[in-house]
Write a structure and sequence with these properties.
binds zinc ion; transmembrane helix; membrane; two-stranded antiparallel sheet; Transmembrane protein 267
Amino acid sequence: MMASETEKTHTLLQSCSTESLISSLGLGIFCLVADRLLQFSIIQQNDWVRALSDNAVHCVIGMWSWAIVIGVKKKTDFGEIVLAGFLASVIDVDHFLLAGSLSLQAALTLPRRPFLHCSTVIPVVVLTLKFTVHFFKLKDLWCFLPWMLFISWTSHHIRDGIRHGLWICPFGKTSPLPFWLYVIITSSLPHICSFVMYLTGTRRAMSSKHGIHIDV
Ligand SMILES: [Zn+2]
């Protein structure tokens, strides 16, 4: 009993190292600055520039969040960070899928929100992935993937939520999220995930792959 309590305390400390706290503070500041920069008329006046820079911010937040999870001072697996950014960005492809064309005009004037922007999809896909990874015994190599997808997609939905609210189909949608809530959720999400990953043993499995060593 005592041992497990000690272990939990260690776990909590591990997911909140000074480096990761500083980098999530940096992520919070990035969130504050990026959306202000996107308001500049040079970006707003062209649809493609606006859409691409908006998507780039999703990408950077996804990459940054995953970098916090796997640790910033270590020799990080850059491929994994790029994959996290890709997952955070790729959601917006559903605009074009629903529009059935590559026309940005059509993608921006949809009659309803496209399906990957329904937040219920996140737990469904994450659990399916977790099951798949387990079932095909890919745990050693891919145990991180459900977590990465969770962080990347959640951060995307929360950021879109500033303007559109969260769409929890089939229950409807919330009102737009306050900006401060978006910044707080986005910068604390990597820590919450790291913590749960330690508790569920995913971090231990990843450590052997990444060579993450934890000194508390
Ligand atoms: Zn989106």
